[in-house]
Amino acid sequence: MIGSRQPSKSLLSDLQIAPRVDRTRLLRRYLGRRPRALPILKAWKSFRSDEIVSRSSDFCVEGFPFSANTFAYCAVLDGNPGLVGGHHTHMEGQVLRAAQLGIPTALVIRDPRDAVESLAVFDGGQAAARHFVPLWADYHRRLSTLIEEGGVVVCPFDRVVADPSFTVRAINARFGTDLAIPVSSSEEISRRAREMRISRGVASRATYEDSSSESLDDLGRAIRSHPDTPRAVETYEWVLGFAPDEEELVTSS
């Protein structure tokens, strides 16, 4: 188990450290940490019904926002268009629930400095980034036992986007499934992922100060200097140790 510091459990503390982040979304995230709360979020229409895992789900792709969630999900569907998969809740409870149901689950992960920067550019800038850094660390620490036990297969961002077949091969290797390998090119899957992001409203919102070079530099410095960034990076490096190597994937294909 990584480290000794426990994730914060107080909703009030989350509200205090992220005054500019929408309170409704914080409440949704607080509930989303718990598998049993997913039906509540579904009833609130926080997610579409097909995004939340159920006993009829064939697979699940989840991870912190801006970690290649959409690319990985589209890659799985490319060779398996008839399957149903949980996706895009970005909630720990979804991953835990999928494991409870025995659903093959890919956990996509990206360097926290990059993931947080992308998310902050999309939503809230530096003020939000101060909240997102500890959120990233807590998200993965809450899943640490599941990761250690092999209840998910870890799919690093760089490998996911470099090879559309990686996520499928990783799921097959870990869970003994026989999902079909994607047949489309990386460019085609990227195009579909962009269309999906647009349909979800991700690509249509204003970005942080128009993402100018100066503002991005300031944002990057704020993230790197955050007191929780070393903890997040330590967690990231620990989780990467559970990603399958290429030999495992070749053997299983």
Question: What does this molecule look like?
Answer:
- With 253 residues, the chain is of the alpha/beta class.
- The chain has one domain (12-252): 3-Layer(aba) Sandwich (Rossmann fold), CATH 3.40.50.
- It is 55% helix and 7% strand.
- Helix 4 crosses helix 11, helix 6 packs across helix 7 (125-142) and helix 10 packs across helix 14.
- Residues 3-21 and 204-210 have low confidence and may be disordered.
Low-confidence stretches: 3-21, 204-210
- What's the number of extended β-strand segments? 4
**Which percent bin holds the helix content?**
40-55%
Q: Count of helical segments?
A: 14
Task: State the major sheet.
Answer: 4 strands, parallel
**Gap between N and C termini, in Å?**
30 Å
Radius of gyration: 17 Å
Which class best fits the helix and strand makeup?
Answer: alpha/beta
* Spatial arrangement of strands, main beta sheet: 2-1-3-4
Describe this protein with a few key phrases.
253 residues; alpha/beta; Rossmann fold; four-stranded parallel β-sheet; globular; disordered N terminus
Quick synopsis:
55% of the residues lie in helices and 7% in strands. With 253 residues, the protein is an alpha/beta fold.
